[in-house]
Amino acid sequence: MNISPFIDIVEDLNRDLSQTQRYQRLVLAIQRAIPCDVVALLKLTDGYLLPVAALGLKDEALARQFAVAQHPRLQHILNNSQLTRFDADSELPDPYDGLVDDNSEQLHVHDCMGSAIYIDNNPWGIITLDAMLAGSFDALNPIETRACFAAVAAVIKTSQHIEALEARVEHNHQVAQRLLETVSPSEIIGKSTAINTMRGEIDTVAPSKLSVLITGETGVGKELVAKSLHHNSRRKNQPLVQINCAALPENIVESELFGHVKGAFSGAVNDRSGRFELADSGTLFLDEVGELPLAVQAKLLRALQYGEIQRVGSDKTIVVDVRIVAATNRDLQQEVKEGRFRTDLYHRLSVYPLSVPPLREREKDYLLLAGYFLEKSQHQLGVAKLRLQQSAIEQLARYNWPGNVRELEHLLSRAALKAITEQGREARIVSIHGEHLNLQPLESITPGSGSVQTPPMQSDIQKSSMPAITVEVNDLGLREATDEYQRQIISQLLEGEQGNLAAVARRLKVDRSNLIRTMRRLGLT
């Protein structure tokens, strides 16, 4: 067994590498030392084993949260102080069955072993190795293998020390937190350029006291962004109080925000604190803030300007220290123009605007999100495993996601129920196929042509005598061909409109900001 890869890793630790890059180099070193088909490094967080680096697994596996109590193999590895090896005919379900990155529709793991990783006598997580051929690990020397896993723990410990030193030098608590922690079950999931850009915006504004206005389409996850802002702020140990402005009748909104005193109105039998008081020293999240009545907007503005509120029915002024995070799927600038939203309140709320990208602009994040939702659903629905088949993945790739992440979650829940009904709850792996999703694609493929045909939108474009576009998918693949089609059609429209982005956006029937983000993703400047 060759231990030299770990020496190379230790030498690399002092380079300018992110935590993700360090862990990925570590699993590469493990695979070089112990030949295998799959290697995964999972960190223990609040009863979950979360993949931080892996080789040989499908993308959807990387966002799964493996609950230790629900995966007996992982639990056995974690609780065993020695090297754990499973027989090829072990009846314990393997968490990676159907998740191995291979062209086979159903590929089962045949040889599996793993080891718990301890840092300073505390469980850090586990390392797992899998092979498709039974007996692949028979020739391994147990002593050398244990030495290999000990080297893994040493590299992780060294990496953590370096990260802590970097954090102290920079005096940045938020950077330290991101270096020392992995994905939690509530963290924003995704690796796309758009989502990484948004994470950078969150890191920038979260430690400040600035009010943040989160905008985005329905279902993109604005509430999750608000929670991330609070969690990464200096107020994270104080309350995060939420109010859905759209869900409250107009006659009680003021009371919900500012509270009331006994006898202020019919039914006010006791004094009651409002959300501003409950959020004192913390964060107040105003969801769907665009739905607030104009009369309440004026009082909200005063609270933001002076940090003072009055309960309904009281003349007493209460001073509060509240950081405001608001969210809306409305165009508040347009609402201001039409007189439905106060200009001064809009500017108070949007000190730092933060846009959440729609799912259609997040590259392959839909696969990571699908893996996360399916892992959660398989335990809720009481089945061993839920897996996406290639036909389902192709449909997900071609869909436009008008309902965004929420639509994806609900779609997968429905598809899982259909698949379970067909295949039975006792099936070893419940497979979700394209017919379970029944999604209408963005474009149609003409049988035998090998090319993406122009979607219905082209009929509008042809009014200006622009030629139809055909993209060959033989060498590109479906996703790349779709991107190439979008790249060509936007380029031609830009030329026809002489670079006028607003005109191109109108022709494509999309928002100008969405068009700009799409152009960036496609490499168009």
List the helices and strands and how they pair.
Blueprint: H1 4-12, H2 19-33, E1 38-45, E2 48-55, E3 66-67, H3 72-79, E4 84-86, E5 111-119, E6 122-131, H4 142-170, H5 173-180, H6 193-205, E7 212-215, H7 222-231, E8 240-244, H8 253-258, E9 259-260, E10 272-273, H9 275-278, E11 283-287, H10 294-306, E12 308-309, E13 318-319, E14 323-328, H11 332-337, H12 343-349, E15 352-355, H13 365-380, E16 386-388, H14 390-398, H15 404-423, E17 430-432, H16 434-437, E18 451-452, H17 458-461, E19 471-472, H18 478-496, H19 501-508, H20 512-522
Parallel strand pairs: 7-14, 7-15, 8-11, 11-14, 16-17
Antiparallel strand pairs: 1-2, 1-6, 2-3, 4-5, 5-6, 9-10, 12-13, 18-19
Helix pairs in contact: 1-2, 2-4, 4-5, 13-15, 19-20
Overview of the molecule:
The chain is α/β, with parallel strands linked by helices and 525 residues long. Helix content is 42%, strand content 16%. It is built from 20 helices and 19 strands. It has helices spanning 4-12, 19-33, 72-79, 142-170, 173-180, 193-205, 222-231, 253-258, 275-278, 294-306, 332-337, 343-349, 365-380, 390-398, 404-423, 434-437, 458-461, 478-496, 501-508, 512-522; strands at residues 38-45, 48-55, 66-67, 84-86, 111-119, 122-131, 212-215, 240-244, 259-260, 272-273, 283-287, 308-309, 318-319, 323-328, 352-355, 386-388, 430-432, 451-452, 471-472. The strands form six sheets. It has a six-stranded antiparallel sheet with strand order 3-2-1-6-5-4, sandwiched between helices. α1 runs antiparallel to α2 (19-33) and α19 crosses α20 (512-522). The protein is globular and about 80 Å long.
